Amino acid sequence: MTEPYQNKQLQQQQQPRSHQVVKAATAATAGGSLLVLSGLTLAGTVIALTLATPLLVIFSPVLVPAAITIFLLGSGFLASGGFGVAAISVLSWIYRYVTGKHPPGADQLDHARTKLASKAREMKDRAEQFGQQNISGSQVS
After folding, report:
1. Contact at 8 Å (CB) between 97 and 106?
2. Predicted confidence (pLDDT) at residue 31 exceeds the cutoff of 80
3. What digits encode the pLDDT tens for the residues 86-123?
4. Taking CA 20 as the corner, what is the angle to CA 17 and CA 22, rounded to the nearest 5 degrees?
């Protein structure tokens, strides 16, 4: 694992000094230009917000309820679509299970059903035994 790291170190040491200087200059130029661009973006955002604030304050009695309404409508439609997709997928799974096409998870469902049925039989037998013991116990007293 250390061999590739050592090879990379050797490559860096073997590179001429001019290549390393060019790499550093390119990185500094790219980083500096991105820094300047982010500063300009920040300044533009502050100026736009400063100019738009009076309009937002004037129209806020209309804009805020409109934004809330649009958000609620959008989230309602999104939730409705999601529930519809979920219902269709569940119904298609049930259809495939009923028709015997063995959808994913059918084995787990069958195993759970048999386990539940065996526990129900076991509890029924215990209840019958308990009932018979109480009936015979009450007749002896």
Report:
1. yes
2. yes
3. 999 999 999 999 998 989 999 998 999 999 999 999 99
4. 110
| 107's tokens | 């084995």
Residue type at 99? Answer: T
Alpha-carbon torsion 116, 122, 124, 126, what sign?
A: negative
Average pLDDT, the chain: 87
Which of 2-11, 101-110, 132-141 holds the top average pLDDT?
101-110
User: Contact, 94 vs 87, CB < 8 A?
Assistant: no
- Residue in the structure block whose two tokens are 């979920």: 86
Q: Report the alpha-carbon distance of residue 96 to residue 93 in Å, rounded.
A: 5
Q: Please tell me the distance from the alpha carbon of residue 86 to that of residue 45, in angstroms, as a whole number.
A: 41
